[in-house]
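Z., the sequence and structure:
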Amino acid sequence: MASFEVLGGRPLNGEIIPQGAKNEALQILCAVLLTSEPVVISNIPNIRDVNKLIELLRDMGVQVEQNAPDTYTFKAQDVNLDYLSTQSFIEQARAIRGSVMIMGPLLARFGMAKLPKPGGDKIGRRRLDTHFIGFEKLGATFKYDAQDSFYHLEGKHLKGTYMLLDEASVTGTANLAMAAVLAEGITTIYNAACEPYLQQLCKMLNRMGAKISGIGSNMLIIEGVEKLGGTEHRMLPDMIEIGSFIGLAGMTGSEITIKDAQIRELGLIPDTFRRLGINMEFRGDDIFIPAQDSYEIDTYIDGSILTVSDHTWPGFTPDLLSVALVVATQAKGTVLIHQKMFESRLFFVDKLIDMGAQIILCDPHRATVIGQNKQVPLRGIDMTSPDIRAGVALLLAALSAEGRSVIHNIEQIDRGYQNIDGRLNAIGASITRI
């Protein structure tokens, strides 16, 4: 198990380029299964989860050619459906949660799909009911085998329908949209997710010949077509990385410029960090964060304590709540962090408390952070990363802390962040992989 040794308390300075968006990549890569024609995708992040999905597609029979470090051509001309019954497929599909999104394309194009119960971060319950209820509404037959934890779908003739999703699931919306593009008739998906990543997927599908309207809203209307063709697609920069870098600059008193951040796609992320006291300037599509000796948490108009909580898009993404919590530990003021979606995602605050942070864990979903205004710096400790997002939040804490920290289980961080140690070291950090 690899670890990071971090020498904290050093201000950083320079420019950093965010990687391609992980959450978009997992959707876009699955969509290549919808056509036998070549699909060229660029700005693909070189991270563990994405590489595992590319390997899975290759083993399923998809021709994969790497054109450049971040660009691949995929051609799903000879997909081997028998591979879905092999032990190798079971192990690969269980290793990444994003594998669930191969089901919509396989069902749409081949009339069947099967998948073992996928893995992923241990951040709480992440049910898949939305996916399978939607597939059934399109006319598929769903079966779950409890003995081997396998999901089975059959549906040779999908038909468009109206569906009201019980939750605005991003992966659920993506899966159902990919199934509906080849269904007969019109499908209406209401309470659809509308994250930029989902918008990117829909725009790519339209370039492939799909007919999707309502992109960017919570109602997608999809007119089924007989087949899809190839296309080229470039992915957005990762908004979670961008938010993490904003938080890092504030915590470490650093002057950082985040290049090509595609600011219009960031939603409330910049405003939320501004409310936590971090100054920033937009320079075209770059975000400039000046060095700050201190930063102060905003309050509501009546002076009451600010709450930062996660919401469906365009609300604040749950993937950045861990970072917001860490940032608040060194701010002036108090904030309530409310993680609504996952009941285990705040279970890393004990490590921050050991570092000297003032945090009250109210319950599995809420934590009150009393900021120390950088008067009592965090101190370095040994700790273990429990999941991808908490791992990066702990890395930010270690970079701002006095002394030496060691973060174990950094494989979790590598699943979502490309060469994070190398890129931060290039602007003055001291992170050693041990």
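The two ends are 9 Å apart (CA to CA). The first strand starts at residue 3 and ends at 7.

Let me know what you think.
H.
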